[in-house]
Amino acid sequence: MKHIGVVLTDILVSQELVRYHVIEFVVNKDNEYDHVLASVADAAFRFEANGMLDLAFVKNQKRRAERPLSFGDIIEWDDIDMKNNRIIYKFRRMPALFGARVSEQKFQLLVSGVVSPVDRFHFWSEYFPHVRLDMKSTEQVLPNVTVSAWLNLCLDEDGRFCVEFDSFEKVEHEGSIIAAAPWNRNNSKYSTLALPLYDDVLESQIVLPDSFSELPHWQQELFDYEGVCTGKRLIFCRRLPSYEIVVALFKDDKESIPLGIGVTCEFTAVWNEYEKRFIVTTYKTTGLPSRLGSNGLLRTSVKAVEDYPGLFKSDQFGLIDDPRGVLALLHLSAYKRSSVVVTLEDKPAYQLDMRFRIVDVQPDKAPKLQKWMEDSEITVEDADGVAIDTSTIYSKDHGNIFFHVPEELRSSLSPGKLVKFSAKYQHDIKQFTVAKIAVLPGDGITCVEKRLSREQDESQIVFRINAVRVRDLRRFLENPIFGLIDTGTAISLPRNKKTNFTVWITRSLPEAGTIRPTRTPFFVVSMGEQEPDDYVLSPDIITPTIPEPSKEVDAMIPKETKERDDIEIQAAMESLGLIGDEEPDFIHAAGCNDTKCATDCPTMNTVMKLHEKVDNFWELLSAKNPTFFTECVNKLFS
To answer: Which of 24, 164, 173, 422 has the greatest number of beta carbons closer than 10 A?
Structure first.
């Protein structure tokens, strides 16, 4: 059996006849590497001539045998080459697996690895699978991206081998290590072959993004591109506006401006086929923050898009949606053709042409718009619309506005009916109320009720319509009744020349305290004539899964006890803000601090209880409250 190890150091070697310590990599039952200490004997560096007469050959072999080992060298040996006391008497030198250096009297190896998206403090690499990060380092790096890091290797006073994280070095090109990480091994997303970046033969096999033919500037690696930081890690590049470009590693550079919103930069990036986005490998900031609004977000000037009410266009950032309805009434005002300065948030997604979203209106027009709203009687006359339920009308000509139908006008109204209506804006409730309505003859639009999410208590109305492709907007369809419709990330339009589609759509409803998730008021649920199935929208929504006991055990538990446990678990989930609409209620004990909670801490005790009772508790907590998730993990592992 062959063995492989890395030379540690000779500084701590005190045994007679032993020259080096070696860490052997041993595969454990979990198919990961453990580390076992071994030693290289002084005798392993001797060459026995055994009567050879070729003096030049003997001299050369002796010189090679006596060549010393260095920290980080990789050696291989067989069972027969090691004695019972784990001393190696014969070995073979192997190609290097790691970079190596001695820095500030620390022996360090440079390894390629990846940070876990579930446990941000876990750095995994093939040969060192369990390395813990400090809090600062977790904030520097993006999970599920290959990065190289320096690890400190040493022996403690008791002769035990220790591995400690030192620092990140750089972002590596995509490799198989991402798919090999334990949290990705059974994920079909990472089962595709990771192709070498510079292999011309294999490179031709890579499936290019769907938009490659439309955006000729796409290439697998970007060199010295220019962009502006639009979020904590996001970079917007005008040459590739539809692609998400993410900084995977922040490096401390005291000589340059820190990367932040509004800071321009030059960068090099590589396409990540797994995540469908560009990962920045190196960047250099080139200017001070600029074009920032009073809220610290990007500021830009926009104009309304006449063909698509509710959408706006910026010369710099392209089409922009208004999910908060900040400018919902602009097209009804005297300023409908004027420019308005707004602030934006960048929310990119794969193949999304409309990545920026309006947050608020800046002072240049805000006072004027507010005064117009307060002083004017705002009305809509003889508009075409469709009933989306028994009390709400939608009109594509008015974008983000939904019109409320009072009870006395609902008698002939049903979902899907086409209508002609007039409405007036109610300043006190900030809502349009229908004043006059006429249902048009005909059957209207076919619709059904579906419960589209496991988190929904009520069903939602889904409409069947015919829609056509939109030129230059790959992820959108258009319908004469509902206007522009977002296809979302779950629906992929065929890449053939077909332009007409039968689709089922529904209204995009925001969760409590959030904005609508899609770029348009309605989005595609499914394609084809067949009605969509329940839950088709939310296969990936994380919901609490409470393990069920076996039938035998369940029969032994009193009914009152089971009901009480269920109530307690629900109350605990609500207290942490994991279910329901209430804000989380974190109550700490007097002995709690920023790094550790006391044993009598109510919040941490609730966390530990749910950890035991709810199977996917940590995934749920990470999705609902990533800040509190990080705090809990940091306290538990500190």
So the answer is: 24
User: What CATH number should be reported for the domain whose range is 2-97?
Assistant: 2.40.50
Transcribe 395-409 into DSSP letters.
-GGGTT-EEEPPGGG
Task: Give the Å distances, CA to CA, from 557 to 549, 552, 561, 609, 610.
Answer: 10, 9, 7, 19, 20
CB 340 within 8 A of CB 361: yes
Rounded to whole angstroms, the Cα distance separating 438 from 409 reads 9
Cα-to-chain-centroid distance, residue 448: 34
Over range 162-174, report the average pLDDT.
90
Q: What is the pTM of this model?
A: 0.73
pLDDT, greater one: 478 or 538:
478
Residue 525 · residue 532 · CB < 8 Å: yes
In contact, 522 and 508? CB cutoff 8 Å? yes
Query: What is the rounded CA–CA span in Å between residue 38 and residue 79?
Result: 13
Residue 545 CA to residue 618 CA, distance in Å, equals 11
CB-based contacts of 326, cutoff 8 Å, min separation 6 = 342, 358, 359, 360, 361
Fold of 214-285: OB fold (Dihydrolipoamide Acetyltransferase, E2P) (2.40.50)
- Report the C-alpha gap between 338 and 309 in whole angstroms: 14
Assigned token pair, 75: 């050696």
Percent residues over pLDDT 90 in the chain: 43
Alpha-carbon torsion angle 368, 373, 377, 379, nearest 10: 110
The verdict on domain 298-374 having CATH code 2.40.50 is: yes
- Helical residues (DSSP H) of 7-71, grouped into ranges: 55-66
The residues facing 344 across adjacent strands are 298, 358
- Scanning the structure block, which residue is given the tokens 């193949």? 351
pLDDT digits (tens, 9 = 90+) for 97-135: 999 998 888 899 999 999 998 888 999 999 999 999 999
Q: What CA–CA distance (Å, rounded) separates 294 from 364?
A: 12
Q: Is the pLDDT of residue 638 over 70?
A: no
Q: Where exactly are the structural domains of the chain?
A: 2-97, 102-180, 214-285, 298-374, 379-439, 447-527, 551-637
Across the strands, what pairs with 123? Answer: 115, 131
Average per-residue pLDDT in the chain? 83
Higher pLDDT, 109 or 210: 109
**Is the Cβ–Cβ distance between 112 and 148 less than 8 Å?**
yes
Q: Which pLDDT belongs to residue 59?
A: 66
Which pLDDT does position 504 carry in this prediction? 95
pLDDT tens-digit readout, 44-74 = 887 666 655 566 665 666 667 778 888 999 9
Tokens of 157: 């006073």
Using the Cα atoms of residue 235, residue 240, residue 243 and residue 246 in order, give the sign of their dihedral: negative
- What one-character DSSP code corresponds to residue 14? -
Taking the C-alpha atoms of residue 237 and residue 49, their distance in angstroms, rounded to an integer, is 66
**120 φ/ψ angles, rounded to the nearest 5 degrees:** -65, -10
Domain 379-439, CATH: 2.40.50.140
CB 346 within 8 A of CB 298: yes
Alpha helices in 311-400 (DSSP H): 366-375
How many CA atoms are closer than 13 Å to the CA of 86, on its beta-carbon side?
12
Is it true that 2-97 and 379-439 share their CATH fold?
A: yes
* C-alpha 364: how far from chain center: 35
* Strand residue runs (E) in 156-220: 161-171
Q: How far apart are alpha carbons 71 and 109 in whole angstroms?
A: 9
pLDDT of residue 419: 97
